[in-house]
């Protein structure tokens, strides 16, 4: 396979944009490299969410991440959803757009869950065709993310990683590799997560997700409500060794801590990347974690003084 570059530039280290942190980001302007926004939260124009998103998107690169495309469903593609997605994309100019390789709806009913697909040649063709339609409409490649799963289909004829690879190749799309989801599925289905990494084409991996999960011993659930655990950090290091510097972010959807706690957790991701890839020039382009404590304190004090003047 030719070593042609098809991914976007390395963005560095980012965080999922959450409402809890809107004010902190605008007041303190942390040196995060980029933010990932949940597309569905901003599809309606106007209102406070769009105000904050627009303000933050003017200062930081952003990417869009969705949960409603239902790319694997047999329902017709929701063109109204795609139109709203494209409108949001035109408004905030994200670096890229992603969703999940799964199905969420059937007969027009949304399950509000990311459900796995049977891994068959027929499903590869079905999903790839739908991805091509979406990409033609949006005018860009999209990223597909692997989901965590808790069941498997008897009809499956291939491993998940082969399925994901074949869809990406057939549709000419990119991959959002969720490191935590690989770990969760590996535990639940008793496979070696390193086998997953080895079978994914490095040319198509655009982004990494890191997150925490709930471990119940016999099974693991992807809950996004814990810090990134040591097992996922270890798998992240293996992913860096396999794929090199890939734009990396931490997801947190519940039990969301104060912004400084997530900032420090993201510093661990950058630290691991620097130790694993000491000579990778892409890492040097990341500005995250380079602002000194004095700079941060000066910025906070300046913003505090400005807010006091406004109140006066």
Structure description:
- This protein has helices at residues 22-28, 47-57, 79-92, 121-138, 160-171, 179-189, 193-198, 230-243, 259-276, 293-311; strands at 13-16, 34-38, 62-65, 97-100, 103-106, 109-115, 143-145, 174-178, 205-210, 214-215, 220-221, 247-250.
- It is globular, with a radius of gyration of 20 Å.
- It has ten helices and twelve strands.
- Residues 302-312 have low confidence and may be disordered.
- The protein is 42% helix and 16% strand.
- The strands form three sheets. An eight-stranded parallel barrel has the order 1-2-3-4-7-8-9-12. It has a two-stranded antiparallel ribbon with strand order 5-6. A two-stranded antiparallel ribbon has the order 10-11.
- By secondary structure, it is an alpha/beta fold.
- Belongs to the UPF0276 family.
- It comes from Shewanella ulleungensis.
- This is UPF0276 protein GCM10009410_10660.
Any descriptors?
alpha/beta, 42% helix, 312 residues, disordered C terminus, 12 strands, eight-stranded parallel β-barrel, two-stranded antiparallel ribbon, 10 helices
What is the topology?
Layout: E1 13-16, H1 22-28, E2 34-38, H2 47-57, E3 62-65, H3 79-92, E4 97-100, E5 103-106, E6 109-115, H4 121-138, E7 143-145, H5 160-171, E8 174-178, H6 179-189, H7 193-198, E9 205-210, E10 214-215, E11 220-221, H8 230-243, E12 247-250, H9 259-276, H10 293-311
Percentage of residues in helical conformation: 40-55%
Largest sheet: 8 strands, parallel, barrel
Trace the largest sheet across and list its strands.
Answer: 1-2-3-4-7-8-9-12
Strand content: 15-25%
SSE succession = EHEHEHEEEHEHEHHEEEHEHH
- The radius of gyration computed from the alpha-carbon positions, rounded to a whole number of angstroms, is 20 Å
* General form: globular
Mean pLDDT: 91
The helix count comes to: 10
Query: Which ranges are low-confidence, i.e. pLDDT below 50, for 5 or more consecutive residues?
Result: 302-312
Distance between the termini: 65 Å
Topology, number of strands: 12
Provide the structure class.
alpha/beta
């Amino acid at each position: 396979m030719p070593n042609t570059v098809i991914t976007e530039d390395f963005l560095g280290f980012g965080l999922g944009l959450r409402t809890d942190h809107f004010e902190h980001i605008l007041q303190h302007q942390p040196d995060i490299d980029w933010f990932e926004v949940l597309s569905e939260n901003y599809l309606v124009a106007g209102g406070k969410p769009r105000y904050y998103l627009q303000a933050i998107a003017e200062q930081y690169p952003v990417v869009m991440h969705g949960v409603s495309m239902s790319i694997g469903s047999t329902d017709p593609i929701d063109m109204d959803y795609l139109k709203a997605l494209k409108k949001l994309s035109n408004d905030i100019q994200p670096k890229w757009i992603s969703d999940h390789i799964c199905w969420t709806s059937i007969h027009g009913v949304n399950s509000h869950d990311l459900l796995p697909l049977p891994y068959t040649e027929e499903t590869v063709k079905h999903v790839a065709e739908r991805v091509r339609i979406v990409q033609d409409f949006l005018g860009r490649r999209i990223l597909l993310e692997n989901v965590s799963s808790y069941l498997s289909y008897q009809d499956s004829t291939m491993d998940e990683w082969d399925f994901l690879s074949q869809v990406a190749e057939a549709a000419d799309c990119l991959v959002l590799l969720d490191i935590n989801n690989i770990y969760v599925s590996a535990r639940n289905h008793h496979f070696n997560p390193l086998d997953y990494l080895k079978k994914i084409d490095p040319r198509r991996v655009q982004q990494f997700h890191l997150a925490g999960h709930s471990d119940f011993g016999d099974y693991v659930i992807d809950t996004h409500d814990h810090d990134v655990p040591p097992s996922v950090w270890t798998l992240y290091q293996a992913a860096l060794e396999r794929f090199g510097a890939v734009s990396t972010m931490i997801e947190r959807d519940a039990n969301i801590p104060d912004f400084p706690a997530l900032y420090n957790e993201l510093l661990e991701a950058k630290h691991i990347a620097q130790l694993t890839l000491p000579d990778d020039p892409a890492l040097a382009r990341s500005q995250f974690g380079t602002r000194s404590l004095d700079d941060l304190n000066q910025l906070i004090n300046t913003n505090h003084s400005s807010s006091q003047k406004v109140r006066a």
